[in-house]
Amino acid sequence: MFKIQGADQNEYGPVSADTVRQWIAERRADGRTLIQAQGATEWRPLSEFPEFAAALGRGAPPPMPGATLQTSQSGVKREPYDGPPKTSGMAIASLVCGIFGFLCVPGLVGLILGIIALVKIKASEGRLKGSGLAVAGICVSALMMLFLAPAALLLPALSKAKHRAQAISCMSNMRQLALAVRIYSTENKETLPPADSWCDAIQSYVSRNKVFQCNADRSGQRSSYAMNKNVAGLKESKIDPQTVLLFEIDGGWNVAGGPELLIRPRHSSRVVGFADGSVRQLFAYELPTLRWDP
Predict the structure, then answer these.
(1) Cα(288)–Cα(1) distance, rounded to whole angstroms?
(2) What interhelical angle do 89-99 and 105-123 show, nearest 10?
(3) Using an 8 Å Cβ cutoff, are 14 and 1 in contact?
(4) Model pTM score
(5) Which of 254, 248, 250, 246 has the alpha carbon at shortest distance from 199?
(6) Whole-number Cα distances in Å, 57 to 26, 27, 68, 243, 281
(7) In angstroms, what is the C-alpha Rg of the chain?
């Protein structure tokens, strides 16, 4: 039985002579490898042992520079690795996920990948590199999650507040337009504007043209509102005060119609103006209760 000293200065064995010959054939040992016979106290080169002369003389090329006889942490013999270390893909992925950690989920993934990458790099015994990338990925991911994740949780609340503000602005526009319609009526024998030119008819009664446009409207049209065609041109006295007067549409100018023009709400609800000048925010379940006929 023999013990062998690897280039990493670790001792391997005791192993049989047949195992030593196998290692020689596998280029894991050569004539310069130090070996100690069982019961001996000195280490001698393999070339000095006649029982291995045949194995050493088969012409096997010497091991690559830096090759060592290694064992894994589990104690299992491993082949020497002589190529340049490869950068860990997990370490790179960890850093990338950390950079995009403001999306919250990539930040968590980056943290996990970074930890796994560090473990694999440490266990690779020089085969992998990139521990710096892994550490950077862990740090960036953690920072992104620490500072930006709470902000991400606030986004739904901020979006809701934005929609609410847009609805309030739209209601203000609708009140001004409804008031302009009533002023027009007062100056025109109590008659509402005609359906095909109501925007033109009341334009001089509003403070600015922006009143015709909802802040949430992205259509690019001049107006975001339509008049109920059933009340256009009628005298106010013949119209029930709770009849729809104005409502939101996709966009246009001098548009008049009925419920067929109603659109999905641009904000938290649909804004509707009534013949008495009032304005309300309505949800889908309230639409069937609207009065369209005078």
Answers:
(1) 96
(2) 160
(3) yes
(4) 0.49
(5) 254
(6) 14, 13, 21, 108, 96
(7) 42
34 in Cβ contact with 4 (< 8 Å): yes
One-letter amino acid at 102 equals F
Query: Looking at this protein, which amino acid is placed at residue 129?
Result: K
Q: What are the DSSP E strand ranges found in 72-216?
A: 77-78, 86-87, 128-129
Residue type, 256: A
Q: Give CA–CA dist 191/188, Å, rounded.
A: 6
pLDDT(76) > 50: no
First to last CA, the chain: 110
d(CA 227, CA 278): 14
DSSP annotation of 28: S
Question: What pLDDT band is residue 264 in, cutting at 50, 70 and 90?
Answer: confident
Domain boundaries, the chain: 2-78, 86-155, 160-289
Amino acid 230 reads N
Task: Please tell me the distance from the alpha carbon of residue 86 to that of residue 35, in angstroms, as a whole number.
Answer: 33
How much of the chain is helix, strand and coil, in % rounded to 5?
45, 20, 35
What residues does 17 pair with on adjacent strands?
Answer: none
